[in-house]
Write a structure and sequence with these properties.
Blueprint lengths: L4 H9 L5 E9 L2 E12 L3 E6 L8 E5 H5 L3 E5 H7 L1
Antiparallel strand pairs: 1-2, 1-5, 2-3, 3-4
Length: 84
């Protein structure tokens, strides 16, 4: 991912509609893993529509700063299949 907020946003802009896995810091040494589709990007945040069978709510949003500080780690499904 990019090294500035603008680079992170540009990298996510081209991946709208793709499946991804998020690993988010849940506090107190907890890691929350969520799967879904990158739905939209805005100037300060991006929206992920979650898989309904796995999660009780439909959407989550994170800021690009979360990605920059590695509070949220994003892995796109196509990247996983390329590595295998």
């Amino acid at each position: 991912m990019g090294k500035t907020l603008g680079e992170i946003k540009q990298a996510l802009d081209v991946k709208i509609g793709q499946r991804l896995t998020l690993e988010a810091n849940g506090g107190r040494r907890k890691t929350i893993e969520r799967c879904g589709i990158l739905a939209e990007t805005y100037p300060s945040v991006f929206i992920v529509e979650l898989d309904q069978d796995e999660h009780s709510f439909e959407r989550v949003s994170y800021s690009y700063a979360d990605v920059l500080t590695e509070t949220v780690k994003i892995t796109f499904t196509d990247e996983i299949t390329k590595m295998a």
